[in-house]
Write a structure and sequence with these properties.
Length: 167
């Protein structure tokens, strides 16, 4: 057995692997820095638009998770790991999240129609979505109605839009 040749092959393999690991570490550090910068920019933009702090944290966490997944998949691809299975998994998660958010998206779309078509406005006494009272606010996902017995009712916009509205 040629120990000199074996030593050269092992040395070359370890050097190549070491450089790949070093490249992956650099990619991780640069990627994390860029993700942090993106999150700071998103935070600044949402603060300037006076978006609710809870919604800001939710959006920032969602973007953080998504970008970290992209970073990890990119680093795995750099090492030669087949990433198509990860892409399929992420696509499946997207379909599941879309199905889970179907009701929320319906409320959002109905809220947009309520704001554009204006069947009622804040301050009107209405009977809509099975609730009667004075409209306090037409939100993106729900409308706040103050009932005659001084109870705030949050009615989903889709329920209001798909039901009879008496103004």
């Amino acid at each position: 057995m040629d120990w000199q040749h074996l030593s050269e092959v092992v040395s070359a393999t370890l050097t190549t692997f070491g450089l790949k690991v070093l490249g992956a570490i650099v990619a991780w550090l640069v990627g994390r820095y860029l993700i942090g910068a993106a999150l700071r920019l998103i935070g600044i933009a949402l603060t300037r638009r006076e978006v609710d702090a809870t919604l800001q944290r939710y959006l920032a966490n969602s973007v953080n998770v998504a970008l970290n997944i992209v970073l990890v998949v990119a680093i795995l691809g750099y090492f030669g790991v087949e990433t198509t299975s990860f892409a399929a998994l992420i696509a499946g998660m997207g379909v599941a999240i879309g199905a889970a958010w179907a009701g929320l998206l319906a409320n959002f779309a109905a809220g947009a129609f309520l704001i554009v078509l204006r069947p009622f406005k804040a301050g009107d006494f209405v009977r809509a979505g099975g609730t009667a009272g004075t409209v306090n606010e037409i939100g993106l996902f729900a409308t706040t109605i103050l009932t005659p017995d001084n109870v705030s009712a949050f009615v989903g916009n889709n329920k209001i839009f798909s039901d009879t509205i008496q103004n």
